Amino acid sequence: MNHSTSEANHPRPSPDMVALGESMLTLRTRPNQAAFEWEVSGAESNVARYCAAFGLQTAWVSQVGTDLAGDLVLSVIEDAGVDVSGVRRLSDHQTGLMLKETVADALRVRYYRAGSAAAAMAPPIGAEVGRTTRILHLTGITMGLSCTCNELVLSLIEDRSRSALISFDINWRPSIWAQGDPPNALREAANQCDIVFVGLDEANDLWDANTADDVRKLLPQPETVVIKDAGNGTHADLGSRRYFVPALDGPVVEPIGAGDAFAAGFLVGVLRCSDNVEAALRLGHITAMSALSQQNDVGPIADDATIQRLLDLSPEEWLSASLDLTATRDVVL
Questions:
Q1: What is the C-alpha to C-alpha distance for residues 56 and 271, in angstroms, rounded to an integer?
Q2: Which of 26-35, 44-53, 201-210 comes out lowest in average pLDDT?
Q3: Where are the domains of the chain?
Q4: Where are the beta strands (DSSP E) in 147-232?
Q5: d(CA 79, CA 332)
Q6: Is the separation of the CB atoms in 332 and 298 below 8 Å?
Q7: How far is Cα 311 from Cα 148, in angstroms, rounded to an integer?
Q8: CATH code assigned to 17-320
Q9: pLDDT (tens digit per residue) in 243-298
Q10: Which of 21, 68, 67 has the alpha carbon at shortest distance from 41?
């Protein structure tokens, strides 16, 4: 009762960014260790946590079970500064689980998410957020979770009453899709969004697209298509002009979560300096190094002075720049 009264007296400000999608409790084993470690994983909440670290008003919308896993997921995401008041808890569905194993120096990931609370999401969940936030971030992962999740994502994208920009990360996960025609479904959804993120490797798997030009021909409608070319760099195609910023050099501990971190950095750049696409791309690369330097999906971002120094570099200086955040390794944001 006291909590709700406090919220009534001090209503939350409208969020700058809202992310919708599943988050899971992740159990991890490490070589020569008998005990599990745990963390929270989820492409959309990863983006929300990074955006919150930059000081944005950020919210996450989803469903979790009324189980311990759901408690832990909510606690970690809320502790990162993300508003979780839009998360529903279901007593008849469990929270999804991910297992990470390191076998012979290779990372193996297994998902236990069938019938999860998030997979039961359906319209009109999240319908209001697109009318109050500046950016609504969605991914192709949610589309593949279930038929109702697919309907939910499409309903949010197609809602003409929304004022939010729709950010959509393809996030191609073939193991998730059990129905439909994923290549066409993802392409049609992406073409209705404002900002689209896709890896060149994903585009090749989905549509046999080999170049940034190929991708833009397949996705002609979004205002901005961000095409990630792994360690080479990233393109931002605005239709009338294309920008390219090489990847930032630095040590890589684990690649999982780097795409989410990049998307968050780019979106922060869009909101803070919408007329400087190259700065947004740089901020994406800077934020990606936070994930690359960690075995966790989300790690601490670089300090403000370091970020500004990197943003101020000339194009020539950027080519030789590097960022090492391994000193913060395994610190969870």
A1: 9
A2: 26-35
A3: 17-320
A4: 165-169, 195-199, 224-229
A5: 11
A6: yes
A7: 42
A8: 3.40.1190.20
A9: 999 999 988 888 888 999 999 999 999 999 878 999 999 999 999 999 988 878 89
A10: 21
